[in-house]
């Protein structure tokens, strides 16, 4: 299916659509105390909504910029998508990147 201006959605909207359609399917896995734990689409969507609501409650609004300073990990994805879900822009930085400058 070709994307048109009528079918283009935001990345968070696509996440929420996928979570509604395939909520119990695994989207990612993360290691916790040496054990791989599965995260489903529904769990990811819930976490993203929680981050978005927390950011909005702290006074951030559409058009604001959120900086995410984190190594590559699921929590960074939730922070990024949570910011996008309330209309903010996000800038993600990996700590090692700053030292290379």
Order of adjacent strands in the largest pleated sheet: 1-2
Measured by DSSP, the beta-strand proportion falls in 15-25%
Secondary-structure element order, N to C:
HEEHEHEH
User: How many strands, what sense, and barrel or not for the largest sheet?
Assistant: 2 strands, antiparallel
Radius of gyration: 15 Å
Total number of strands: 4
Counting DSSP H or I runs of 4 or more residues, the number of helices is 4
Average pLDDT for all residues: 88
Query: In terms of per-residue confidence, which ranges show pLDDT below 50 for 5 or more consecutive residues?
Result: none
* N- to C-terminal distance: 42 Å
Structural class: alpha+beta
Shape: globular
Could you estimate the helical fraction of the residues in percent?
40-55%
Describe the overall structure.
With 101 residues, this protein is of the alpha+beta class. The protein is built from four helices and four strands, in the order αββαβαβα. It has helices at 11-22, 41-57, 74-85, 95-100; strands spanning 26-32, 35-40, 65-69, 89-93. The strands form two sheets. The protein has a two-stranded antiparallel sheet. Strand 1 (26-32) and strand 2 form a beta hairpin. Helix 1 (11-22) packs across helix 2 (41-57) and helix 2 (41-57) crosses helix 3 (74-85). The chain is globular and about 40 Å long. 18% of the residues are buried.
């Amino acid at each position: 299916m070709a994307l048109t201006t009528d079918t283009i959605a935001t990345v968070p909207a696509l996440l929420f659509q996928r979570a509604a359609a395939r909520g119990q399917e695994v989207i990612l896995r993360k290691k916790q105390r040496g054990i791989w734990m599965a995260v489903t689409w529904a769990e990811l969507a819930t976490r993203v909504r929680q981050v978005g609501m927390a950011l909005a409650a702290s006074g951030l609004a559409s058009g604001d910029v959120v900086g995410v300073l984190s190594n590559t990990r699921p929590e960074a994805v939730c922070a990024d998508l949570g910011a996008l879900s309330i209309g903010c822009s996000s800038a993600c930085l990996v700590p090692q990147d700053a030292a290379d400058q």
